[in-house]
Amino acid sequence: MPxxxxxxxxxxxxTSGAPSGGTWLPDGKYAVALAIMMFVLFFxxxxxxxxxxxxxxxxxxxxxPFYRILKFGLLTLGIAVAIWRSSLALLILRRLNLFFxxxxxxxxxxxxxxxxxxxxxxxxxxxxxxxxxxxxFVLVAWHPRRFQNVSRPILTLLLxxxxxxxxxxxxxxxxxxxxxxxxxxxxxxxxxxxxxxxxASIAIIFWVHGWLAREVKLWLAIxxxxxxxxxxxxxxxxxxxxxxxxxxTLLFITMRAPTQNPNRKRRYRSFVxxxxxxxxxxxxxxxxNLFPGLAFLFDPIISLxxxxxxxxxxxxxxxxxxxxxxxxxxxxxxxGGYWVGQNPSSESYIMLQKLYVYPTxxxxxxxxxxxxxxxxxxxxxxxxxxxxxxxxxALLKIDQTQALLxxxxxFHQLIINLxxxxxxxxxxxxxxxxxxxxxxxxxxxxxxxLRARSLEAQQKARAMSARPFRPVRxxxx
Length: 477
Hints:
Layout: E1 11-13, E2 24-26, H1 31-46, H2 65-84, H3 86-95, H4 98-110, H5 117-139, H6 146-168, H7 170-173, H8 193-212, H9 218-235, H10 238-255, H11 262-287, H12 299-305, H13 314-325, H14 349-355, H15 365-396, H16 400-416, H17 429-466
Antiparallel strand pairs: 1-2
């Protein structure tokens, strides 16, 4: 039976008293309720509102009563749990990624200068809903493997439902279009094929990591990877395929380190992480064509993924977005204020006029952040990524298995955002995954600090009880 407070037991810090006087207690009473809450959040972020009514031509569909109930239900529950566990919530917020908090503040302020204030306000509410839901998740029924133990089955269930949906209603589950990237591709229950492929690649990463960490049995991992691979192939998302192969390679290299010496293993893993960062950086420069001379290095990759030199027309979108960024380079157009749908009065309508298609995003997460919040927003994003990396490397010294999962997800998103937009985007379920990981990192830091305080208090108590008794002589009057 696992010890109280051990990594394998579901425990939580009791905040009834001061941190130095608290204890580690079992905290699994509301585990199912919080798991259901996260399933609702994943469903809300995955299945588009147009599935149950609304205008499919809008980037943000007409309000759907069912989705409004889900949204405000999640927001209310998140606030309630945060108030209920306010002491622990404050500790976690103090350890939360500072640049993410700055980003939330910038989003709120951008309502004042947004070119579409109502859309920015709607996205801000969605941002708060997701953030408070993730905060509530790490406040109740927490243990160090809770993140993947809940996310993995929920994501796999959504993929299975997408396969069933494709069998029952293939016309609705497939993309419409005859282009090379859209022909015969599936989007399942997701909004479009790329999101379907990204979810499948993340599911594969979860299952491979679970097997390498000996958290799931081999046969379960094989079934999970098979489901994810099937969905990934049906989506025909070349970026998702490349990201999955890249990250799985990273997991095998780091989790099957050739040396058994802890210090050497840690240095080896750090070296591998830095090496992979450099590879992604070079790939980023070649994709964005900042240094055209580097493009030849990745010609084989472009051929294998089936993309042309324009990345399926993305370079044309990037050029037009750069022109729009030049109009408001410092603070941007407001969070979510540009891609507001095929409205002739919107500034993004020019995409439909020139490209004869409305892309709904710039297909580059970094450019969309600059377009929304300017270069100040880009600095905030880079700080968020660097601090996420730093916190993961710090956790690597304490809980290597968990830290490597967070690093794997970070690398996955670094690759995805080269040709798709998911960074800090409330319209993407990828944001839920990264937000959960970010709050889990903060919870891990809080747990480590409180464990250290508890251990220090116990050692002081033992030292006091171990002192020899010395009788005091009283003077005779």
